[in-house]
Structure formats: structure tokens, C-alpha cells
Design goal:
22 helices, U32 family peptidase, Elongation Factor Tu (Ef-tu), domain 3, Pept_U32_collagenase, alpha/beta, 777 residues, Peptidase_U32, RNA/ubiquinone_mod_enzymes, eight-stranded parallel barrel, globular, TIM Barrel
Length: 777
């Protein structure tokens, strides 16, 4: 069976110690910048070097996240940082912005690169593309099933990494703009405000039906019961999410999964139910899910009623305010009562104060912040947390046992030798002197040689090849032992890398022109209004569930075809459809990496804005794949001008349209109105009305589905830069994208008439300029 890597999060040095001491094979962490967890503690350069050295002493690998989108002004600093990480021996970088791939492959071509889950790799063709572009490992989207993971990992022989525990995003990672467009905090820049954890109301605007709750808040993933099946899939690395979690959490989760993995690989015993119960106590949102490993289970994977740590049920409060415990309880344990919480200060059992009580006991608690009928949940277990704290407080508690051979002869140097990883290490110390008073006895000498201190190594099997009674100062004995261990550590910490190697990047130098205006539609009425206004470069989305544009209209009008940005098991069917329409279309528009790889050179391909092209160098990455692209909608005016000026590839700017905030494998319509769960499919509720999500502030976000039952949530108001086209043209920007989502014939007609005049003639209060003025931090 293949070697499996257990990969743990490290948001702080204590979390790093916890991960290593509890059995992680690798850790991932971020520096002070360019990390998708900008609000974690993260590591400055000094601590980063310390972290790498500590991990390498235990032969644990270190992967550093530089997994945010980069502004051009940040690229030099990011590359310099990559050089620093390379020089101190970091094992690999986890990257989102492909501009860094271009730069790193030029100056550090042997630095191992992993494609972040933010790159949204969810099909085999996309994985092949990135492997061919120089990525050693692909961190797959959380939305894949075990069969899809097996196909990419085993059948295609691609090194993969998947999440096995922790928070699950409701949107495909790398495709979410919700936080960015609502509050200016970009998830692509590591500053997600987690709007998915807020309450929403889903409304059918035709029937008036609505449902409320935390409708976009998924349960955390827990796969500890499925480790055998996961290992069989051929995946290389099993990743625990949690760089924002405390070190006690990291210690407990890593130790549980270490036991589960070892039970499969080594046949050791483990009580999985007991470990799962421990994981539930640490953190859960209304229980756990298995993400999409065994299919899409709809509302069963969601935490509709409470978005934070639910805890485990402690008991129901009786009339006399007593509770019959369903879990053990100790002083200082944390309790939740609805939205409120408190820490237990007193436990009263049979009229006496006790420090702890066991399951089944009837007790009263102080403070009595509850009433008859309330259900209490235990959200933290002080005994569990204290036991986990003791682990990371002893960063060298785990030891590697070594054999030691000793020669201790009069008038000769003390000689110590050991073998580690098939290499022999040898040291000669000071001369053994004649004992004038008390000689060094064998047991005393062994006692000093067995000491280990702040090192992973200790000598447990000590054999004397020769021993004569003599004398040597304790300090000299200790120094010999230290030197022998230091020689092993020196080898483990050796960094031998050449930062002067360069590799020239091949790029396309000439691009054909692309249309000035490209208008995306999904209904025949929208298409009709577009053509009537003289806009002939129409992008047709035939995969929208309620779309009514037929193949005949496509063939008659020589349009562009919008291919979904997310394509999983339907990949072959979509490719067949594209192949069928290729003779009748001008080209395709997509942000799907698999489609780029499949149709490269077969037709004209324009990149969609969800490719997240954020700077001129990221555009360069796609030079051999694209003929033009719509750039990121998170850029401000100056960044747009800079990118389009410096990019050789033709670049489009989105000047009108509701931006897609989220695309999700989970469908909020099918799961709420349609009742979709693990045992039943939805009733196609999406076909029985028009829908929107309403937030706490009353903003309404359009919700659509596609023909593959994916859910698309669009911004509450369209972006409208029509009034800004003149200034964009003066800056030599000549390519524009217009998207229509749910607009009627008349609305499309009005927008396009304004577009021809480059002036908006109506009320602007129902529109936004998006990030055009301010951009994202």
C-alpha cells in the first residue's frame, strides 16, 4: 500500500509543535504575507526558519502557502520571499496565483510547487494541464467524490492532496467573490469575512414561499471512519484544515487521524467511535459531513440552525434546574445554551460540590444561566484540552530511539557511534583519565549518555565494545553525546540548493484581435435583443437550466459558446457537445482548466473572469492556451489599466453584469424547497419559480441553477461601468464583456442602447461600479 502523508495545519509555533509531536508527516503554514489565512498568527522570517529546522529534525516536511492573488507591485516581494523560503529548505510552496509559477520556474525551477485548492482543480484534464505546467502536486477541490479522486490520483498517476477534516466552503474554492463584493474583503486575497456563515432567507418571488436559516453554512468534514477507502483511492496527502484553530485542536485532530491511518497501514488497534466522539467535542457544526466523497447529500451536509461550534449534548434542564448528564463534566468546561455560553464554575451533586461528574449523574450547575426545558451542550472539555496542551508544551517529547556503541578505555578518547537512516555517525571525545578518586562506573556513564534534552534523539540501547574504569568529567561526556547528535542534525538540516539556475519561459508573441464587445446571454429573448442592437459577438450559455436557446439558433447566428467553469462527471458529455458545435461557432469562453487543455489549438478560446487573472504575469501563464481573456473583476481602475497595457494577450473588462458570487455543488433551492438529502433527490424546485437569497440587510441575490444541478448565486446588483468606457478607451482598452443573467428583453435592450452611447441614461442607484474605484486590499 502506498505511503500516505498526514498533512497538518500550523497557524502558530505551538500548533506546529502539536502537529509534529502528534504524528504529522508534513505541515503547511503561512508567512506574514501572501497567505490565504491572513488573520492567522502566521510566521515571520525568523520563526519560519526555526519552524523548518524543527520539522526537519523530525523529518517532517514543510509546505508554505503563498496562495493569494497578487497585485503586480507585490510580485517582486513575493518572489524574493520564495527565494528566502527556498534558501532555508522549505520543501514546497502552495500557490494560487499562477504568475508565481511563471516567475519561480524562471529562477528556481527545482522548487516544488503544489497547486492550491484555490485553483479549483476538479477534473482530470485540469490536473494534467497543471502537471504539465510544472506542478508536482494538485490540491483537489473538496467537491470531488472518491471515484473522481481515484481517477485523477491512480488512473492518471497524478500526485494529489485532499481535505479530510475541517471546515468546508459552500462555494468552490477560488470561485467565491461573495465576501469581496459585499464588503471588500477578498477571499482570493486571504481576507474572507465568511458571509456563508450568516443567516439568509431563500425566497420564491413567484409563489412567495420562503425558508430561513444559515442556508449557506456547511458542516465541517470528518472522514475518520473512511480512511481505508480514502487510502485506496491513491491520494498522496490527507490534509487537515485549521490554521485558525488553537494548538489543542491541532494536537487532538492529528493524533486521532494518525491512529486511524496507522490502523490501516500497520494494523494497530483504534477505537474509531471514541476518536470521532473526541473530534465532535473539539468542534462541530450540528455534527459532521463527508463533503462530497460519497455523493451530494444536499441539506444533510448543512448546519442550518447554528453556524458556530455546536458542541455535544449535555442534557435537558428540569423544573428544579437539575440536569441528568449525557456526557462527563468538569469544572471549567464550556457550556452553550442556544446563542449564549458560559463556563462551569460549580458542579453540585447530592448537595455537595464536586470537581467533576460522570455521564448519568444528576447535577446542578453554577452559573445557572438557563431555565426549565433548555437543552445544554458542552462546547469544550477542559480535561481533553489540558492533555493536548501538555503535548505542545513539550516540543521534544517525542523521541527517536537510537542504538549507541561506546568505547571507554584508559588513555584513549571516548568513542561513540550510531547508525541513523543507514548512515554511520562517529565521534571521538576527550581522553579517558586514570581515576584518582572515584571512577566513572558503567551505569553512571549510561545515565549521562541516555540524556536527550532539546533534541528528537535519545540513546536507549547502549552497548560497550570496550570499558575500563577511569575518569572523565560529566561535562566532557555530555559534550561527546551532544556532538554525535549534532552530526545527525547537521545532515538533516543541510540545505544544498542553487539559487542561480534560470529557465527561460516560452511564450506566444503575437495574438489575433478579439471582438470589442462580447455579450453573454442565456435566453432567446436576451439573444434577440442583443442581435437587434447590432452586437454580433454573442456568447451563448446553453447550460443554464431555464435557458431556451436551441442548437438551431447557435448554428444560424455563428455565436460564441460559454462552457461551464465547473465540469465534473459530465466532462465527456460537454466535450462532445462542444465538438458537435465547433464548426458552427466562433469559439468558446470558459475558465475551466480542463476545457483549456482539451480544446487548446482546436478553436479560439477566451478566458472567463473566474480564471482570476490579476496581473500581467498571470496572463502570461495562459499565453499558449488562450487567445484573450476577461480579467479579474476585483481590480481597480489603475490595476486594470496596468494589466491591459502590459499584457501581450488581449484583455477584456467586464462593464456590465451581475457578477457570479458563488458556484456551489450544493443547491440551496433543491435542499430547502426540494428536500434533497442523502436518501432522496430534489423535486426540481428550481423549475417552479424564480429565486433569490435575502441577507440581513435586505439585499437580494439572484439564485439560478444549471443543467447539472449546480447552484449559482449572483450579486444583488449588476456592475455597471458603461459611463466609464470613454476613459477606458482613452487608455487604449478596447475589449469589453457584458453579461445578462435574469434580465428581460426590454432590460437588455435598454442596457445595450446605453452601451452604444457609452452613457447610462437611467437611475444608477440599482447598480454598482464594483471594485473599479477602490479595488481590494
Amino acid at each position: 500500500m502506498n505511503r500516505i502523508e498526514l498533512l497538518a495545519p500550523a497557524g502558530s509555533m505551538d500548533s506546529l509543535y502539536a502537529a509534529v509531536q502528534c504524528g504529522a508527516n508534513a505541515v503547511y503554514l503561512g508567512g506574514n504575507k501572501f497567505s490565504a489565512r491572513a488573520y492567522a498568527s502566521n510566521f515571520d522570517n525568523e520563526n519560519m526558519k526555526k519552524a523548518v529546522e524543527y520539522c526537519h529534525l523530525y523529518e517532517v516536511k514543510v509546505y508554505v502557502t503563498i496562495n493569494t492573488l497578487m497585485k503586480e507591485k507585490e510580485l517582486k516581494e513575493a518572489l524574493d520571499y520564495a527565494k528566502f523560503l527556498y534558501s532555508i529548505g522549505v520543501d514546497a510552496l502552495i500557490i494560487q496565483d499562477i504568475s508565481l509559477v511563471v516567475l519561480i520556474k524562471e529562477v528556481l525551477p527545482d522548487f516544488e510547487l503544489h497547486a492550491s485548492t484555490q485553483m479549483t482543480v476538479h477534473n482530470g484534464e485540469g490536473a494534467i494541464l497543471l502537471k504539465n505546467k510544472g506542478f508536482k502536486r494538485i490540491v483537489l477541490s473538496r467537491e470531488l467524490s472518491l471515484n473522481e479522486i481515484k481517477y485523477i490520483s491512480e488512473d492518471l498517476n497524478i500526485e494529489t492532496e485532499i481535505f479530510i477534516h475541517g471546515a468546508l466552503c459552500v462555494c468552490y474554492s477560488g470561485q467565491c467573490l461573495m465576501s469581496s463584493l459585499i464588503g471588500g474583503r477578498s477571499g482570493n486575497r486571504g481576507r474572507c469575512a465568511q458571509p456563508c456563515r450568516l443567516p439568509y432567507t431563500i425566497v420564491n418571488s413567484i409563489s412567495g414561499r420562503e425558508k430561513k436559516g444559515y442556508l449557506l453554512s456547511p458542516k465541517d468534514i470528518c472522514t475518520i471512519e473512511n480512511i481505508k477507502d480514502i487510502i485506496k483511492s491513491g491520494v498522496t496527502s490527507l490534509k487537515i484544515e485549521g490554521r485558525m484553530k488553537r494548538p489543542e485542536y491541532v494536537a487532538a485532530v492529528v493524533s486521532s487521524y494518525r491512529k486511524a491511518i496507522d490502523s490501516i497501514l500497520k494494523g494497530s488497534d483504534v477505537n474509531i467511535e471514541q476518536e470521532k466522539k473526541k473530534l465532535l467535542q473539539l468542534f462541530n457544526r450540528e455534527g459532521f459531513s463527508k463533503a462530497y466523497l460519497f455523493g451530494n447529500v444536499g441539506k444533510d451536509m448543512m448546519a442550518y440552525t447554528f453556524p458556530k461550534n455546536t458542541g455535544v449534548m449535555l442534557g435537558k434542564v428540569q423544573k428544579d434546574l437539575s440536569i441528568t448528564l449525557q456526557e462527563d463534566l468538569s469544572i471549567k468546561d464550556g457550556i452553550r445554551n442556544g446563542e449564549k455560553g458560559f463556563t462551569v464554575s460549580k458542579i453540585i451533586q447530592n448537595g455537595n460540590e464536586v470537581l467533576e461528574a460522570t455521564k448519568g449523574n444528576k447535577v446542578k450547575l453554577k452559573p445557572a444561566d438557563f431555565k426549565n426545558g433548555d437543552i445544554l451542550y458542552k462546547t469544550s472539555d477542559v480535561k481533553l484540552l489540558t492533555s493536548m496542551e501538555s503535548i505542545y508544551k513539550s516540543p521534544f517529547g517525542k523521541k527517536v530511539d537510537l542504538d549507541l556503541k561506546v568505547t571507554f578505555k584508559l588513555n584513549e578518547p571516548i568513542k561513540l557511534s550510531t547508525i541513523y537512516r543507514k548512515k554511520q555517525y562517529f565521534i571521538e571525545g576527550e581522553l579517558v583519565q586514570k581515576a584518582l578518586n572515584k571512577p566513572v562506573y558503567v551505569n553512571k556513564l549510561k545515565e549521562h549518555l541516555e540524556k536527550s534534552g532539546n533534541t528528537p534523539f535519545r540513546f536507549t540501547n547502549i552497548q560497550f565494545e570496550d570499558f575500563e574504569e577511569g575518569f572523565m568529567p560529566v561535562s566532557s561526556i555530555n559534550e561527546s553525546r551532544r556532538k554525535l547528535i549534532e552530526s545527525i542534525e547537521k545532515d538533516l538540516l543541510k540545505v544544498n540548493r542553487d539559487t542561480s539556475i534560470k529557465m527561460l519561459n516560452k511564450e506566444k508573441s503575437v495574438f489575433a484581435e478579439i471582438p470589442k464587445y462580447m455579450v453573454c446571454v442565456n435566453t432567446i429573448d436576451q439573444m434577440k435583443a442583443t442581435l437587434e442592437n447590432g452586437f454580433l459577438d454573442v456568447i451563448v450559455d446553453i447550460f443554464y437550466r431555464k435557458g431556451d436557446i436551441k442548437d438551431e439558433s447557435i448554428k444560424e447566428n455563428n455565436v460564441w459558446l460559454k462552457v461551464p467553469n465547473i465540469i465534473k462527471e459530465e466532462f465527456s458529455a460537454i466535450c462532445s457537445k462542444v465538438e458537435e458545435l465547433l464548426p458552427h461557432i466562433k469559439g468558446i469562453v470558459t475558465a475551466n482548466l480542463g476545457i483549456l487543455h482539451k480544446f487548446k489549438g482546436k478553436t479560439t478560446i477566451i478566458g472567463d473572469y473566474k480564471l482570476n487573472i490579476f496581473n500581467p504575469t498571470s496572463a502570461q501563464f495562459y499565453n499558449d492556451l488562450l487567445d484573450g481573456t476577461c480579467i479579474s473583476v476585483e481590480l481597480n481602475k489603475s490595476e486594470i489599466l496596468n494589466l491591459t497595457k502590459k499584457s501581450k494577450m488581449p484583455c477584456q473588462v467586464m462593464v456590465y453584469g451581475k457578477i457570479e458570487n458563488m458556484v456551489s455543488e450544493y443547491c440551496v433551492l433543491g435542499s430547502t424547497f426540494g428536500g434533497k438529502n442523502a436518501s432522496q433527490n430534489c423535486s426540481r424546485a428550481c423549475e417552479k419559480g424564480t429565486f433569490y437569497l435575502k441577507d440581513r440587510m435586505g439585499a437580494c441575490f439572484t439564485v439560478n441553477t444549471d443543467k447539472f444541478c449546480r447552484c449559482h448565486v449572483y450579486n444583488s446588483v449588476p456592475t455597471n461601468l458603461i459611463d466609464n468606457i470613454d476613459e477606458l478607451e482613452k487608455a487604449d482598452i478596447n475589449n469589453y464583456r457584458i453579461d445578462f443573467i435574469d434580465e428581460s428583453y426590454n432590460e437588455v435592450n435598454n442596457v445595450l442602447k446605453c452601451l452604444k452611447e457609452k452613457k447610462w441614461n437611467g437611475d444608477f442607484s440599482k447598480f454598482t461600479r464594483g471594485h473599479y474605484k477602490r479595488g481590494v486590499e
